[in-house]
Amino acid sequence: MREWTYEGLMQELTKTAETKILLVVLDGLGGLPISEIGGKTELEASKKPNLDELAKSSMLGLLEPVLPGISPGSSAGHFALFGYDPLRYYVGRGVLEALGIGFPLQEGDVAIRANFATAQYEGNQPIIVDRRAGRPKTEETERLCAELKNAISEIDGVQILIEPVKEHRFVIVLRGEGLGEGVRDTDPQVTGRPPLTPQPEPDNPENRRTAEIAVKLIERTAEVLRSEPKANYVLLRGFAKRPNWVSFSELYKLNACCIAVYPMYRGLAQLVGMKVLDFEGDTIADEIAALKSVWNDYDFFFLHIKPTDSRGEDGNWQGKIAVIEEFDKNLPDILALKPDVLAITGDHSTPATYRAHSWHPVPVLLHSRWVIPDPEVKGFGERTCAKGTLGRIPSKFLMSLLLAHAERLERYQA
Amino acid sequence: MREWTYEGLMQELTKTAETKILLVVLDGLGGLPISEIGGKTELEASKKPNLDELAKSSMLGLLEPVLPGISPGSSAGHFALFGYDPLRYYVGRGVLEALGIGFPLQEGDVAIRANFATAQYEGNQPIIVDRRAGRPKTEETERLCAELKNAISEIDGVQILIEPVKEHRFVIVLRGEGLGEGVRDTDPQVTGRPPLTPQPEPDNPENRRTAEIAVKLIERTAEVLRSEPKANYVLLRGFAKRPNWVSFSELYKLNACCIAVYPMYRGLAQLVGMKVLDFEGDTIADEIAALKSVWNDYDFFFLHIKPTDSRGEDGNWQGKIAVIEEFDKNLPDILALKPDVLAITGDHSTPATYRAHSWHPVPVLLHSRWVIPDPEVKGFGERTCAKGTLGRIPSKFLMSLLLAHAERLERYQA
């Protein structure tokens, strides 16, 4: 007896159609009650006549990104929305760091999160005394990376690519044949200890090759940085390759397009095989203009709006409300495109009172001609969604719901 | 690709913190409408001003202990609340019977549920004519167990421990080296047949050793009981060892304490590695006094209140209401401890009209500074919970919710 997996079902049942699906992700949409505004959440308190009107003819519900109580990172939240179970599909930290700066990872590349650190030498033995080299400014890290880049471009036939990220963090990418990702971190996690050696996971010559390159790379960087007062050493973490997952088009027979400003989300969309659109500007209106410009070219659109999350992380509930209200003003332009299926949701909650990604399930609004609206619903909010006709479902099932409402799924079994 | 399990996630993501979590289990809390009181349930009909007030600033929901339609035993209901999936974590009947009388099972012990039975001999062949020996009174079983204990303390180097339970039931524990638990029941399940021999599961010398001891034990007990008019034979069932599961502290990094009066629940808490508190008295007030006395010593507290279930099993809805009202009167003393996270729920439902454990999901109230209360909620009851903002979730996910609200979980993936 074979048990159908969700992915298997999707590949088996999806069919092409003329319908268009639009998934709008207001990053970190969900919030918590705020006492200063009478216990309303950011979403509830927003003046959003268009969203509230749309809610009356839509189904509302709550999406659970991972499991109850689990606060997802950006990757987990998005993979879930794309229908990729985040407990099975996840990527290593090196890859996420590279995606975050928009680094164009190629197949076979090994991406590494690197830190500048401070070492003191006891004879030839480095001892890590500051794991973050006193947290250099980003410009300083840019200068240090430029020096490393100048000095080191290749080791044993492997190309060494170096890019700054932020403060003490940068990315190193190893590009070459036969490199494995199974290599342990060199960060000792505590100060006063020597760095760890980059241990390969056993019985794999590809991991061994990566580890050998890493050993030489560490030596070379230490030479280059020898005269730096603080950032004189490099710690390596999160060795990872870009995964080679079943693509959006293979899974769903969709021709999908991503409209996002931030590199991380563009990278996540690329990982599942979406076309990532280049466009001018970075406002919500700019994104919608870009959406409009390619409306005829694709049948699935992932529109990512970042500042809801950023304001939430800053604890700025007024700012988060303003972003939601700005989106609401632009909503008529989206509706004018007449998507057959429209979902408006988040990848996770970022309550401004909590100032971080949280575990609270995320409000979702699903609009299509095939929904069952609730006549009592007055608007789009956490509590109307908690009682919504869509119920509370794992985020990963949003994709099959979108496909169903777009009449893109065959019946399961006769 | 490795799929994260719930247990794996918990071990990976939990972190220590200064917060305190209190889980109050009103055993068998859930009920059904009672026509004599206008169709209200026991919980709905209770006068419980403190609980109703607390509900207004909490999240309400329903917990599903096992699966829809499945009525859990006490062990399954509690394992689920402790975050141990009851479809994966369960213990043999011998162990449950031993826990039920507070028998201090040691690692390696094989616990057996035993029945006194009546045998008639055809030559040397016993034929079971009453599988419960006419249901002797508990005092009679105590006398019989004392006789067995006097006569049999050891077989082939294995210590034989015998303790009465109730009516025809008692517990036998085999304590010694190299004993397996894979031995079949000897109860023929119908009368008029010989007892079964204790068959070891194949290819395991430890099971064979237990079976050999069991054969001799049955012969010895039959000799001792030879002159008894009814209870002249012993049937053995549910050979089981105490399992060695990942502990509460390993899973959650919690220092957990159990406050319970009944041996069974104390035993269940011990199985997952909680410290079980000894204290004076057996009322709800006594339990709360005990809770108060150790409030500074632990960070997780499991407070078990039994009589809601007992009254439900008796069909005594007035009695069950009285227990809920007694708990309500004591609630201010609990709230005065200011737990960071407080959950009030049951391990299963025991509707007084049904007079048994039932499959109905269990009302739950979750209180912390990070909840989304429903302004329309007027009180704590099955129907307010069915519409609650917490939704309906498997009981096993209550633990990750408690940990999240206590800020004891790291984010999943970057």
What would the keywords be for this entry?
about 30% helix; alpha/beta; eight-stranded mixed beta sheet; Alkaline Phosphatase, subunit A; about 425 residues; homodimer; six-stranded antiparallel beta sheet
Description:
The structure is a homodimer of 414-residue chains. Chain A is α/β, with parallel strands linked by helices. Chain A contains 14 helices and 14 strands. The first copy, chain A, has helices at residues 6-13, 42-45, 49-56, 74-81, 93-100, 138-151, 205-224, 248-252, 263-271, 284-293, 307-313, 317-335, 382-386, 398-405; strands at residues 21-26, 59-64, 110-122, 125-130, 154-155, 158-166, 169-175, 233-241, 256-259, 275-276, 300-305, 341-345, 362-367, 391-394. In chain A, strand 3 and strand 4 form a beta hairpin. Chain A is globular and about 75 Å long. Chain A starts with 5 loop residues before the first helix and ends in a 9-residue tail after the last helix. The A-B interface holds A 32-33, 39, 41, 62, 66-76, 85-90, 93, 96-97, 351, 354, 356-361, 382-383, 386-387, 391-392 and B 1, 3-4, 6, 9, 13, 370, 372-375, 387-389, 391-393, 397-405, 409, 411-414.
**Which second-level CATH architecture of the largest domain in chain A applies?**
3-Layer(aba) Sandwich
Strand order of the largest sheet of chain A: 10-9-11-1-12-13-2-14
CATH structural class of the largest domain in chain A: Alpha Beta
> So, the CATH homologous superfamily of the largest domain in chain A?
Alkaline Phosphatase, subunit A
Sequence of secondary-structure elements of chain A: HEHHEHHEEHEEEHEHEHEHEHHEEHEH
Largest interface: A-B, 39 and 31 residues
Unreliably modeled segments of chain A: none
Provide mean pLDDT of chain A, rounded. 96
Roughly how many Å is the radius of gyration of chain A? Answer: 24 Å
Tell the overall outline of chain A.
Answer: globular
Helix-residue proportion of chain A? 25-40%
What fold name goes in the CATH topology slot of the largest domain in chain A?
Alkaline Phosphatase, subunit A
Oligomer: homodimer
> In percent terms, what proportion of residues of chain A is strand?
15-25%
Query: How is the main sheet of chain A built?
Result: 8 strands, mixed
User: Number of folding domains of chain A?
Assistant: 2
Total count of helical runs of at least 4 residues of chain A: 14
